[in-house]
Structure formats: C-alpha cells, structure tokens
Amino acid sequence: MNSQKTISGFSKLSKLGKIKWLVENFFKDPESVMHELKSYWLENEADQKLLDGISENTISNYPLPLSIVPNFVLNGATYCVPMVTEESSVVAAASSASKFWMERGGIHAEVLNNLKIGHVHFYWGGSEERFAALFEPMRIKLISESKPLVDSMEKRGGGLKSVSWKSFIAQEPGLFQLFVQFDTRDSMGANFINTVLEQFSASLQDFFKNQDGLNPEEREVDVIMSILSNYTPDCLVRTWVECPIDALGSFPGKMDALTFAERFYHAVRIAQVDPFRACTHNKGIFNGIDAVALATGNDFRSIEACGHTYASRLGKYQSLSQCSIDQGTFRFWMELPLAVGTIGGLTSLHPIAKRSLEMLENPGANDLMMIIASAGLIQNFAALRSLITTGIQQGHMRMHLNNVLIQSGATEEEKKSATLHFSDKTVSVNSVKSYLEMLRSQRINI
Ligand code: MEV
C-alpha cells in the first residue's frame, strides 16, 4: 500500500491543507490542480462557507448549469421551471413539450394524499396474538411520550397520523414492526420523522421492561432500527395532459395526428410489458423530475428510489406513465408518490435553491409535488415524441455537435458553418474536428 495515499486526521486539516495533501498525492501537476480547484471557490467568503457546510471534506465547488423551462402552464398558472441537469437536450425537450401543451390547455395535476411513513423494526419473543392484546396500551404510551416532539408540527397542522403494527414472523421468526404515518406539511420531514421514531423505540423498550403480566420471553425486545421509509405510496400526485386527437397537429415526416397518437400509445404499452424498456422510459421521466428536485434543493435519490419501488408495486417493474385513446381524445398521465419539501433542509440553506423556489412563487409541498411530477410527465412526452417520429439522435446530435464545437474552441462563425454543414450528416468527434481543420486550412490558404 502506498502510505501517502492514506491519511489519519484528515478531517482536522484546514481546507487548504486537505487540497495540498490531495494534489500532492493524487495528481501529476499539483500546482495547476490546486489553482484550478481554488478558481471554483466563490468570491464571497460567507457564501463559500455556507456551501462548505452542506457537506464534509469540501475542497471546491462542482458547478452544473441552472436552466429554466418557460411556458410551463399547470392548472392554469404559468411557471418558469428551474432545472439542474448535466444531460444536454433534457431542458430543450422539456421546453418544447411545455410549449406544445401550453397551446393545448396546459398540464393538469392534483395531489391525492400527502402522508409519509416510518418504522421501528424489532425482534420480540412473544406471539402475534399477545402483541395484538398489548398494542393499545403500548400505542397510548408511544403517542404520549412523543408528544413534546410532535407539538410544533401539530401546531402547523401536521403530526402523527396513525400508529399500527405489522408482523413478519411468517418470513422471519420474531420480526415485528411499528408502522407510523406522518403529516409533515411543507417539510420533507426526514429529521422530524426519525426523531419521533427513535423516541418510539425508547418507549417500546420501556414498555416491555415495565408492563405488568409479561412472561420472561415477552420482556425480550431487540430494536434493530428506527427509520423513515422512502417508499411513500400515500404521498401521491397525479398529473395529466389531454386533447382531442385532431388538436395534436402534425409531426415530422408528415405523420398525422391519429398515427402519432397510436404510435405514442404503443410506445407506452411497450414500457408496460417490458421491464427493459420500462427502465429507460422511467429514466426519461426522472430526467425531468430529478432536474427540478435538484434545482429546488430536494433529495432526488429518495424520490427516484420511491418512484422505482412504486413502478414495481404490481410485482413487475413497469412504466410509471399511461396513455389512452378514447372517443377521439388523447390522454397521457402518471400517478406517482413524490415526497418533497419547500421548507427546511437544503431548501432554506442553498441560495440558488431558495431562488428556484421563489421563481416558482414559493410553492407549498403540494404545489411542488404537482410541478415536479408534471416536469417528469412532459419530459416523458418529449422523449416518446422524438422516439416515435424522428428518433432520439436528431435532437441529441444537435446538442452533441454544440458540445464538440465548444470543446474544440470553435469561433461563432465556425459554429454557424458547422451547424449548417452537419444538419444532414452524422456527428462524431472526429468528423467535427476534421471539418474544423478543413475550415481553418481554407482560411489560411485564402
Ligand atoms: C435519455 O436520457 C432518456 C431517453 O432514453 C428516455 C426514453 O427512452 O424514453 C430518451
């Protein structure tokens, strides 16, 4: 083992000390890397400190573009939607699909419910019957001992919504679970939920220690963990678009509206029957969802984990979105669980997340659920529209061309000329480079 590549006491080093150790041991050109990493620090020291405090062992910032999607009409209100993504063409696709639906009545959405879930997982020596008999006094103790923790959430209209239990002893001897539902109002609520669950765990252990009339095995309780579940099927939002088929218009290659609607319907069916396609189809949905989640300071990993679990709820992984053609109407919709927050956590710390929420007119959690789910739906619409008409590469290649031109240091004039040249040709790094070389040599020869 190369001892310089391991270190003890790293977290105690200053930020510069950390960078110095890193660049000296992991890079060939330490000075220029040090310079580059520092060049991404924010000028304003207080702002930089705030960012550094969001994570640990921070050495620099990792910039990603903040983009906006205009003309996003949802339930009659017009939004400009912030997106943070590293994938080119996601924002262009969302913008074009937003405009398409703006001209056809906009997007619609409703929140069906908004409950979060948490568990205390534990092993217990008694039977299901005995647990059922003991549960009511236990429930009363759990609720009363967590009251001080729940009070302020109750004042905001939320709090504990139910406490029940499940047994898993058919699959795993002795395994039980407290199953708790929470209303966390406009916050994502992870800290609140986990704090209450840990109090539940203490109360549960105390109950089995002190309750009268238990035999020795029934005093044995082993709490393994207390944690929220990111699967929140009772935190559900529905989003949809619809219009008469004729109003869909016409599509590239002179495809008429009915052909488009039928091909679109089949594209969704494929993702309903084939998990391989469903995975990519849903990935396209999360291209939109994650980008808005990230821009608004929400936890896109929990949102994705939840969405994919929901996509498997019928015992087989399938499309999150659905489509119908019925009596001349094209409908495209999606229902999915989406736990988000608009207060607390990163939403109130990160300066750009705060601005993103302001851009969305400071929505509550329910409004943000509808916006984010709708961004996923129109992203999915845009992807399928490309796939069943021109194919996805046409749009992707335009963005790819742009990126290669930027990487090759192309001038504005060269970019214009290359865009025209490649409008009907295949783009590759080599073909763009050769084209630029050709342009440049022509100029020299003139
Ligand atoms: C690419 O990021 C997303 C798509 O593959 C989604 C899809 O195939 O539906 C275009």
Distance between the termini: 59 Å
Ions, cofactors, ligands: which are bound? (R)-mevalonate
Please state the average pLDDT score.
95
Strand-residue proportion: 15-25%
The CATH architecture of the largest domain is: Alpha-Beta Complex
Strand tally is: 10
What does this structure look like?
This protein is an alpha+beta fold and 446 residues long. It has 4 domains: 3-54, no CATH class; 66-112 and 233-391, 3-hydroxy-3-methylglutaryl-coenzyme A Reductase, Chain A, domain 2; 116-229, Alpha-Beta Plaits; 395-445. Helices cover 49% and strands 18% of the residues. It has helices at 15-26, 30-39, 45-54, 90-102, 128-155, 190-210, 257-273, 275-295, 300-311, 351-359, 365-388, 393-407, 412-421, 429-445; strands spanning 66-74, 77-84, 108-111, 116-124, 159-167, 175-183, 221-229, 236-244, 321-326, 329-337. The strands form 3 sheets. It has a 4-stranded antiparallel sheet with strand order 3-8-10-9. Strands 5-6-4-7 form a 4-stranded antiparallel sheet. Strand 1 and strand 2 form a beta hairpin. Helix 4 packs across helix 11 (365-388) and helix 8 packs antiparallel against helix 9. The longest helix is centred in the first third of the chain and has 28 residues, at 128-155. The protein is globular. The relative contact order is 0.12.
